[in-house]
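testing teh design pipeline on a random one, pls ignore if ur not involved
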């Protein structure tokens, strides 16, 4: 049976653990201004390939690589979560440059370490990545 969870911020939502397919979260607040916080979200354990991160460069400008074309655009706000090694990539960012399978994010400073293969997903406000050991994302449905 699905579990109903209540959280006050996007940051709190991302730290939840032990989620199962179909769990629902009521999100009261925001992580930062304009992050799309608030609403009702459904947990999904299947994450489409276009939002799966395959690399996060450890450089002054962090470049994110996805497994297949990501369909994101310049200036779009994204939420990255679950990136290990180069944890500086996690959080809310705007896209500064893009190709079909890469985008550069506007993070202050440089990367924070070598990317750990197979970690991290991209959210666009309608979806919010989980930062926990549970692989998956939250999809807004109301």
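output:
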């Amino acid at each position: 049976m699905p579990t109903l969870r209540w959280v006050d911020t996007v940051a709190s939502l991302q730290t939840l653990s032990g989620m199962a397919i179909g769990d629902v979260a009521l999100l009261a607040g925001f992580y930062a201004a304009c992050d799309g916080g608030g609403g009702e979200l459904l947990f999904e354990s299947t994450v489409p390939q276009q939002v799966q991160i395959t690399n996060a460069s450890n450089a002054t400008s962090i470049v994110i690589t996805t497994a297949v074309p990501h369909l994101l655009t310049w200036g779009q706000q994204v939420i990255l979560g679950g990136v290990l090694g180069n944890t500086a990539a996690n959080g809310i960012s705007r896209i500064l440059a893009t190709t079909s399978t890469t985008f550069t994010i506007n993070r202050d400073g440089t990367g924070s370490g070598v990317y750990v293969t197979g970690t991290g997903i991209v959210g666009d406000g309608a979806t919010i990545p989980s930062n926990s050991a549970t692989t998956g994302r939250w999809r807004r449905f109301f």
